[in-house]
């Protein structure tokens, strides 16, 4: 349940951005998280709602989008997204090499944009 | 209006982690973030390591726990400097807690700082505490599918210690399967099967520590 501390950091960033752009009401915030980041979007939403009650962020919609896992093969160097059951042994579809690949994306956690007035 | 932001949500944690990393670099301390589920044997392994290497290195420990200072007392019994952090319900250590602890410690001449995280395979993986490496301990009684179920922590770790190998005859645990899963997203991970109880396999872990301490001193 580290979503609460993540939500706290999120709220701090939004506050800074709202002050910077001189806006008083938050409508929407968009967060992107990687497929293997340890984020449960529902838990993040609940924490965000709890933390923003009675503030200028209250009632804002938290939109989350998952960034799929992409890996670069350790032997042929081509990029691929592992499919279905193969998620974690990860066979390269081009040269069949198993495991030891490099993560290109799928670990992110960032705020992309906010909508406010 | 739409306001593009594009900021890492955990940027505040990253900033303090970098500060810690600088302190460890200046003092040439090898800092290791030890993570595992509760009961995997983190503290036992640490006690054993501290006792076995105490004539070789000066070591210090930051103990993270939700409650109690039991672990800090166990570790202090080996003669190492130990400081307890209670997270009061928090499921992980973050860099500000570790910085506060580091400021209270005497790090003069310390070669290795072990930061024992809260027992949990999920949350600690997201929060750097300025360490050189993350070390994950998995005990064979937990099952060989753990690296598959908790990919991030194994993808982020430099070392996986497979603890309690003395129990292998009694549990269904395939070392190769667990190792392959841990390597799927991590070509650099070093895997050491050990038993903190019998001492089996610990020499390889100690050799790795010796090598990394030497590397850090020469940076």
Protein architecture, described:
The complex is a heterodimer of chains A (117) and B (219). Chain A is of the alpha+beta class and 117 residues long. Chain A has a single domain (3-116), classed as hypothetical protein PF0899 fold (2-Layer Sandwich). Chain A is built from two helices and six strands. In chain A, the strands form two sheets. Chain A has a three-stranded mixed beta sheet with strand order 2-1-6, with helices on one face. Chain A has a three-stranded antiparallel beta sheet with strand order 4-3-5, with no helix packed on it. In chain A, helix 1 (3-20) packs across helix 2. The radius of gyration of chain A is 18 Å and the shape is elongated. The model of chain A has no long low-confidence stretch (mean pLDDT 92). By secondary structure, chain B is of the alpha/beta class. Chain B has a single domain, classed as Rossmann fold (3-Layer(aba) Sandwich), CATH 3.40.50.300. Chain B contains eight helices and eight strands. Chain B has a seven-stranded parallel beta sheet with strand order 4-3-5-2-6-7-8, sandwiched between helices. Chain B is globular and about 60 Å long. Chain B starts with a strand and ends with a helix. Chain A binds chain B through residues 1-2, 5-6, 9-10, 12-13, 17, 21, 23, 31, 36-38, 71, 74, 87-90, 98-103, 107, 109-117, and chain B through 1-13, 90-92, 94, 122-123, 125-127, 147-148, 150-153, 155, 180-181, 183-187. Strand 6 of chain A pairs antiparallel with strand 1 of chain B, so a sheet runs across the interface.
Helix- and strand-based class of chain B? alpha/beta
Instruction: Write down the overall mean pLDDT of chain A.
Output: 92
CATH level 3 topology of chain B? Rossmann fold
Summed up, the domain count of chain A is 1
What name goes with the CATH superfamily of chain B? P-loop containing nucleotide triphosphate hydrolases
Low-confidence stretches of chain B: none
What's the count of strands of chain A? 6
- What is the terminal separation of chain A in angstroms? 32 Å
The largest sheet of chain A, given as strand count, sense and whether it forms a barrel, is: 3 strands, mixed
Portion of residues within helices of chain A: 25-40%
């Amino acid at each position: 349940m580290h979503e609460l501390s993540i939500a706290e950091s999120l709220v701090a960033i939004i506050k800074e951005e709202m002050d910077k752009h001189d806006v008083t009401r938050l409508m929407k915030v968009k967060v992107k998280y990687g497929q293997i980041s340890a984020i449960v979007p529902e838990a993040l939403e609940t924490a965000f709602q709890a933390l923003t009650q009675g503030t200028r962020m209250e009632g804002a919609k938290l939109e989350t989008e998952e960034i799929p896992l992409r890996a670069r093969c350790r032997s042929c160097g081509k990029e691929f997204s592992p499919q279905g059951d193969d998620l974690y042994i990860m066979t390269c579809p081009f040269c069949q090499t198993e495991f030891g690949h490099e993560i290109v994306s799928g670990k992110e956690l960032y705020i992309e944009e906010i909508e406010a007035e | 209006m739409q306001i593009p932001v594009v900021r890492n949500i955990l940027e505040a944690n990253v900033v303090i982690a970098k500060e810690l990393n600088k302190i460890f670099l200046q003092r040439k301390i090898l800092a290791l973030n030890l993570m595992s589920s509760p009961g995997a044997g983190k503290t036992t392994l640490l006690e054993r390591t501290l006792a076995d290497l105490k004539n070789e290195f000066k070591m210090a420990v930051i103990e993270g726990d939700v409650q109690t200072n039991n672990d800090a007392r166990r570790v202090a019994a080996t003669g190492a400097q130990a400081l307890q952090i209670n997270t009061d319900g928090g499921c992980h250590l973050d860099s500000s807690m570790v910085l506060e602890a580091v400021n209270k410690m005497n790090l003069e001449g310390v070669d290795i700082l072990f930061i024992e995280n809260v027992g949990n395979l999920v949350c600690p993986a997201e929060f750097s505490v300025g360490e050189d490496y993350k070390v994950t301990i998995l005990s064979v009684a937990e099952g060989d599918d753990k690296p598959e179920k908790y990919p991030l922590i194994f993808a982020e770790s430099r070392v996986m210690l497979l603890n309690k190998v003395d129990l292998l005859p009694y549990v269904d645990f395939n070392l190769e399967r667990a190792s392959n899963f841990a390597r799927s997203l991590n070509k650099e991970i070093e895997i050491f099967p050990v038993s903190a109880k019998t001492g089996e396999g610990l020499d390889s872990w100690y050799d790795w520590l010796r090598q990394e301490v030497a590397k850090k001193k020469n940076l």
